[in-house]
Write a structure and sequence with these properties.
The chain is an all-alpha fold. The protein has one domain. The protein is 75% helix and 0% strand. Helix 1 crosses helix 2, helix 1 runs parallel beside helix 3 and helix 2 packs across helix 3. The termini are far apart.
Length: 61
């Protein structure tokens, strides 16, 4: 989370603004924890998290 958290928050802020971004950020990491066992070894974790963040932020809107 420390490595990717700031990037995920930037994505969330870009989609929903600063107020709702923290909710989308939290939802992103909760979804990532659930989906983590299905993540293939060698996957681009940053890209994966950004995709989840964008989808969660859109859900907030």
């Amino acid at each position: 989370m420390a490595e990717h958290g700031p990037r995920v928050l930037r994505v969330c802020r870009a989609v929903v603004g600063p107020v709702a971004a923290e909710d989308a950020w939290s939802e992103t990491f909760l979804a990532a924890l659930v989906a983590d066992p299905r993540l293939r070894p060698g996957s681009d974790v940053a890209a994966w998290l950004v995709t989840i963040a964008h989808r969660k932020a859109v859900d907030v809107v």
